[in-house]
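User: Last request for today: this protein with nicotinamide-adenine-dinucleotide, please.
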Amino acid sequence: MAISEKEIQNVVAAVLKELNTGSKPAAAAVKPQGEWDSTQYRGRKFKGIYSDMNEAIAAANEGYKAVRRMTLAEREKILAEIRRLTREEAPIMAVMGVAETGMGRVDHKTAKHMLVADKTPGTADITAEVKTGDDGLTLLERAPFGVVGAITPSTNPSETVICNSMGMIAAGNGVVFNPHPNAIATSNYAVDLVNRASKLGGGPDVLVASMDKPTMESAAVMQSHPLIKLLVCTGGPGVVRAVLSSGKKAIGAGAGNPPVIVDDTADIQKAGKDIIDGCSFDNNLPCIAEKECFAFASIMEELMTAMQKNGAYKITAQQADELAKVVLVDKQGKDGKVHKVINRKCVGRDAKVLLGMIGVQVNDDIRCIICETGFEHPFVQEELMMPILPIVRVENIDQAIDWAVKAEHGNRHTAHMHSKNIENLSRFAYAVETTIFVKNAPSYAGIGFGGEGHTTFTIAGPTGEGLTSARSFTRWRRCVMKDAFRII
Ligand code: NAD
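Assistant: Here's the final one, the structure of the complex with nicotinamide-adenine-dinucleotide:
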């Protein structure tokens, strides 16, 4: 990334100072008096926010018509403004995101916005294909769908809105958002940012649209509206299922539960640091973050010590059971049976806060909780989205792969491995079949943060687009020229 860690810390410090909140990134410290507003920020009224989904769709349709008329260079001008404003205002959105949702970390959310600004592909992602032969030339072009209906999560709210907008606009679409209600002010700040960028870049005042109070009902209106030609859903299994059964073309970016394997050939010191860096990133909110670890018994102690040297706090089996009673709660399922589900109050919270809930006091430098557990432990089986890493001891690579594949639950989302054994790496990658497979790096290398490749916060495993970009939001069109333009 072009921006250094130091620069990020400086801008975050400056924003926190401006908000007159002191230097603590904790939600309570940055939350101002009163609720966050989904229609304005500090007296500046947001552009493109509506109370009626039909009106929001009509506005997004006007945005689509405007984008369609634009040249690629004109679209790029708007994208350049989105990149610039995102970089400038990343710390504001990071502070808002933490304060509004109570989840994540300001410095990491700032870094995620910088990543979106720098590594979200633009119009260059839209490439054409051509076929020539005895019958002439056939051109295949990636065309826009029209107006896209996008559902976005609370875990990466403004990051997803901006990244989706960039890709969808680059591809020539309009977009209307039904953001997560728990992150609506942060999401709509991002919608307004895109619209301000549009104006600055020579586009319309309202290029993308959203709701002031999104609900399941407004999502339903969006899903059945005739002007919505493509649905893009980033969220948990419930919402992805709903969108995929809408009867419309849909891109589903669903839940993961990424396992990480460490075998006896890995650089254990590096693996320990990398895993804690990835697992604690934004307090484990990213769907790609390490959620459970399978470590060879022969290197288990060394790995845990390396993790402890890098900000991990090790709890006992008894403390793990106490913590499980706090972070998981009973809920009656549709089948009438009682299931363990995550306690939303614990999602994305600091490790220090979670430890405090079981009476353990630690310093601010503790960023992750580790514990040895069995394979069946709920910490292994549930997608916690908390900086808690269960580590399961395995005897050999067969057991590691077997359990890691089972813990991933067939999501085919993301998996990681630390090893220098090419055969072991290949075997796990083959068996787990995930969209992202990261070798010998923190999980975020898989979305372009310190790894090659573009970034996205919409990773579409279930519907197969993978790491979405502008081309994911297009449909193929074919144009045939008979008996001409083969010039060889
Ligand atoms: P969530 O599933 O709670 O909500 C997502 C959005 O869907 C919200 O706007 C919500 O109001 C709406 N929604 C929920 N049920 C719906 C329904 N039946 N119909 C219409 N709308 C509905 O998401 P969250 O808790 O904010 O995000 C966390 C989950 O999302 C995790 O499971 C995480 O792995 C996943 N996620 C996946 C990706 C990816 O790229 N694959 C990215 C981010 C998050």
